[in-house]
């Protein structure tokens, strides 16, 4: 057995000796090297199979890149398509403010005035009047009025006279929105009178007359407040007798014997109207 071990060792030594000698002859081989090769880098034209490894760098040695990062692109689905069918547009509507209904008013008119009938036969003619009226004003521009008047004094013939009149008038207001309102009036009415001829002082004669007539005039009303108004107007009237004695006993006879039962005159009056 020991004989075989010695033979093997000798063979190994013999094989290694030439390699060692060859390694010592090469300048690039380190002394005592068993295997040796060229350590000289290949020439510029040589081809190397190995690439240099990247150098290891620490995290703190990294330099920021000057190239900006690529933009972030967000993809969204396209919007849905809505199809609208054309329709006829409704007609244009113009708003008209609603006007408040006109205010209706009732009024009580108290008035007094004087009759203008001339001086008369005796030069002492003159009569005064006092009365009241109920006025209905359905719209600011117009009114209806019923008047009851009482008059007394000396008539054109110089007789002492008392008279009662009932008249119906329509009034038209020109500027109803103003405090001072101009109005026109027109109407008709009836009246009854009792005249006493007392010129001789005795043997007094009493006469009774009945009339129907028309009148017209112009006036002005001052609104003192919403419920009180002051008014003045000038009226002219003409009338004729309607009683049964008009044919046998005419009212007016001149010196030439001409007679008539038609008379006229003027009336100037003022008063207050209380509205509600």
Structure summarized in a few sentences:
The protein has 276 residues and is mostly beta strands. It has one helix at residues 2-25, and strands spanning 105-116, 126-139, 142-154, 160-173, 180-197, 205-223, 228-241, 252-253, 259-260, 262-275. The chain starts with a helix and ends with a strand.
Write out key terms for the chains shown.
two-stranded antiparallel ribbon, 10 strands, 276 residues, 8-stranded antiparallel beta barrel, mainly beta, 44% strand
Tell me what the structure shows:
9% of the residues lie in helices and 44% in strands. It has an 8-stranded antiparallel barrel. A two-stranded antiparallel ribbon has the order 8-9. With 276 residues, it is mostly beta strands. The chain contains 1 helix and 10 strands; from the N terminus they run H-E-E-E-E-E-E-E-E-E-E.
Low-confidence stretches: 19-24
Shape: rod-shaped
Q: Main β-sheet: number of strands, strand sense, barrel status?
A: 8 strands, antiparallel, barrel
Strand order of the largest sheet: 1-2-3-4-5-6-7-10
Secondary-structure blueprint:
Blueprint: H1 2-25, E1 105-116, E2 126-139, E3 142-154, E4 160-173, E5 180-197, E6 205-223, E7 228-241, E8 252-253, E9 259-260, E10 262-275
Antiparallel strand pairs: 1-2, 1-10, 2-3, 3-4, 4-5, 5-6, 6-7, 7-10, 8-9
């Amino acid at each position: 057995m020991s004989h075989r071990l010695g033979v093997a060792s000798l063979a190994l030594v013999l094989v290694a000796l030439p390699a060692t000698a060859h390694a010592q002859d090469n300048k690039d081989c380190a002394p005592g090297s068993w295997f040796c090769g060229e350590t000289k880098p290949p020439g510029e034209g040589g081809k190397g199979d190995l690439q240099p490894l990247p150098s290891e760098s620490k995290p703190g040695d990294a330099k920021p890149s000057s190239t900006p990062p690529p933009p972030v692109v967000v993809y969204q689905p396209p919007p849905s398509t809505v199809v609208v069918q054309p329709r006829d547009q409704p007609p244009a509507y113009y708003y008209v403010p609603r006007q408040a209904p006109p205010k209706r008013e009732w009024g009580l008119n108290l008035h007094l005035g004087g009759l203008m009938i001339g001086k008369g036969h005796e030069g002492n003619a003159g009569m005064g009047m006092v009365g009241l009226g109920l006025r209905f004003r359905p719209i600011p521009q117009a009114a209806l009025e019923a008047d009851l008047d009482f008059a007394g004094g000396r008539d054109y013939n110089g007789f002492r006279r008392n008279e009662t009149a009932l008249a119906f008038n329509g009034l038209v207001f020109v500027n109803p929105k103003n405090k001072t309102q101009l109005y026109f009036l027109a109407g008709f009415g009836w009246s009854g009178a009792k005249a006493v001829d007392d010129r001789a002082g005795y043997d007094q004669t009493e006469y009774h007359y009945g009339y129907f007539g028309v009148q017209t005039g112009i006036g002005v009303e001052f609104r003192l407040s919403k419920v009180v108004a002051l008014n003045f107007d000038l009226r002219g009237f003409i009338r004729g007798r309607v009683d049964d004695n008009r044919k046998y006993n005419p009212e007016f006879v001149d010196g030439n014997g001409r007679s008539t039962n038609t008379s006229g005159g003027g009336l100037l009056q003022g008063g207050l109207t209380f509205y509600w």
